[in-house]
Each structure stands twice: as structure tokens, then as C-alpha cells.
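Here is an idea for our session: we take a single protein and study its fold together. Start from the sequence, derive the C-alpha cells from it, and show both lines together. Once you have written the record down, we can walk along the chain together:
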Amino acid sequence: MSVTARLRFLRVSPFKVRKYAQLFKGKGIEEARAILSYHPSPTCNDLLRLLNSAAANAQNNHEFDPALMEVINVLVDGAMTHKRWRPRARGRVNRIRKRTSHVLIEIDLKEEFKVKPAGEKQEPAEGKQPRRAAKKPRKETVKAPEAVAPETSVAVEAEAEEVTEAAGEPVEAEPLASVAEEETGEETEE
């Protein structure tokens, strides 16, 4: 079960917050605290306060051990934009957008310390090989016949002549080009 903490309407743009949020995603709690506490950006101070809040939620509400926790996900979304203006020359106005963001930090136990429910299969401990199911016999696949190459079509025509002569009917085989002309109605260039 994961534990979350939210920070809403942080007065920093989401683009800038995401840059620092990716630094500690997937790290342990102590390592994430170290990264954020030694980083010079003021945004990291806000993220550190949120991380400490999420760790306290996990510790007090769900009795997680801080040494076994890790940051699973850090989600940064855009929030409301404050619109301001600044006067410019000739009576014009420049728009100023003061962007805000919502931040969500999700914490859970590290994968190797999670306890699976009784209904699910537990993974074997390191060093032990999992049992494998008996292999099913493979079905044999039938290969499709290969395409007839242009050189072999001449040999097929010669065989057809021999077969028809043996049957007693002297018939000449037409070249393939003339057969193609009859089917398409066009003359081919040779």
C-alpha cells in the first residue's frame, strides 16, 4: 500500500519543479533527503518539506520503517495561473503569467521488503530457482511453397511440351509474355 502527500498551489512553474522532482524519483527516503537538502534551489526546500511530510504519514499512519521506504512516484501538474500585467510604451500592456503547480509524492516499501497477500504467488528467495511447468510439445508449422523464380518458368514450359507430346497432342507452349498480354490486354516490351 503506497502513502501519498500533496502540495497544492506551489508558486513555481511545473516545468521548473519537474526538473528537481526527477532527481529523487525511485530513490530511498534517506538518499532523497540528502539530494534535496544539498541542492541549492529554493524549490528543493519545498520538495524536501513535502517528502518529510510523506515519510511522516507513512511512519505514523502505516508504521513503515524509514530505512525500508522508497519514493515510487513524483507527479507534478500545472495548477492555476495568476494573470498580471505590466504597462509598456504607447499605452500597451504586456501580460505576465505567474504559474503554480500541484505536487504529489508517493512512497512505498522497497520491493524486496513487501509482503504479498496469501492468495498471490510469492517469488522465490535469491539463490533458489523457481519451479518450471512441464514444457508443452511444439506444434509443427507448415511452410508455404516458395515462389516460382523466372528461370524455372522456362523449365516448366519445357516439361509441359514433353507431357503434351507424350499424350499424342502436338501443342506448342506459348511464351509467358504473350500470356501476360492476353490477360492484361497490353503489350510488354522485350
